[in-house]
Please model this.
Amino acid sequence: MRKTLIAAVCLAAAGTLALAGPASAVTNTSDFTVTFPDKRPETTYYVANEAKLVNGRISATSHVSWQILDDQVVDLSKRFTSFVIITRLEGRPGKDSPDAIDATKTCDLTKLVNDHYTWFLDEPVSTCTVPSELYDGDVWWSSDSTVVYDVAGDGKGPVTKELKGSPLVHG
Model:
C-alpha cells in the first residue's frame, strides 16, 4: 500500500498526464476514517481512483481497501447498514472546463466491508469499474468517485464522502 500511496502522490503532483503506448494508467488515492459509536474498531478506508487507457478505450476504476487503526479488535459486529461506491468516468472539452459524466457505475460493498475488518487485496470484489468508452484525445479524462455509507446503530443516517479524482488524461 505504501508504494501505491507514494505513486499516487507523485502522480497527483504531475497534475495532468499525456498517456502514450498501448496501456497506461493514472491514479490518485483518498482516505477517510470512520469512528464507530461503540467498541467496533475505528477504521481507515482508502480509495484509489484510476483512469486507464487500453487499446484505444478509456475506463475508470475505484480500488477500495481498509485497515483498522487498533489491532485489539474487541467487537466484530456489523459495522454498516450500507456501504456503496459510485465510480464515474468524466470528460471535459478543455482543461479548465467543468467535468461531464460520461459513464458511471454503483457498487455495493456492504457485505465485503462487514465480513472483513481489514482488506488490502486488489481484487475484483473490492473494485468498482465503469464500462470503458472510446478514447478521444481531444477530451480531458478522469476517474472520480463518491462513497456513501451508513454506520449501523449510530442513528445519523447516510454519510457522503467525495473523493479525489485521478489526474487528467489528455492527448
Q: What stands out?
A: Confidence is low (pLDDT under 50) at residues 1-22.
